[in-house]
Amino acid sequence: FYSNGQNTAHATTRDSSLNQIFDKYQDAPKESPNKIGPTGTMKFFGDIGVDLEGISMLIASEIVQSPSMGEMEREGFVKGWTALGADTTAKMKAATAARQKEIASPTPTGQDAFKRVYRHTFAVGREPGQKAVSLSSATEFWRVLFGPSGTPWASATTPWLDWWIDFLEQHHRKSVNKDLWNQTLNFALKCLADESVDWWDEESAWPGVVDEFVEFVK
């Protein structure tokens, strides 16, 4: 009983600390008491050492479950940092750096963390009210996610990411929906496991543009 009471006290203290940090960065506390807008979000990310043009921004956005790019909500903020035991900006900075290091490792936990960040990026990358990500935004996100600080999508003889983006810009020229976004990740991982593409099956349920890309590569 004493132990449970102690844990509850710690949790209450941590929540209080996190709510205080959240309140510090609010853009309009009276109008939106449970939301931080772009100005406050960018200030917060800067204070915890996030590179606004790198994968650490996508990592931090996934941790707090940002509903859109440059925004945070109180519930996601408190739950996300509580799960990592980070109740100060110093701990948040350390936790974000640790997650980035984890993602860069080829371990199962690193791959799982990368997949979570990748999938959440689609949610924050959409324009308000849209169901897809513009091709220009998608390519920018792919260059970060599949770049050196993420999971590089390139093999010994094939610059997969460059070819993929070039192909889409020349032949697809459409926005990227959720299915194509998620299937691109699956396709990329399979390419990294076997660049020969011998595993390819035309009967599999890949998006049509992926089928066309494989034909282009071959």
TrEMBL record:
Has UniProt tagged this entry with the keyword Chaperone? no
GO: which molecular function terms?
ligase activity
Q: Is the Ligase keyword given for this protein?
A: yes
Kindly list the residue ranges recorded as spanning the membrane: none
Which terms are listed as keywords in the entry? Ligase
DCUN1 domain sequence ranges? 13-218
Q: What does this protein do?
A: Neddylation of cullins play an essential role in the regulation of SCF-type complexes activity.
* Name the UniProt record assigns to this protein: Defective in cullin neddylation protein
Originating species: Cryomyces antarcticus
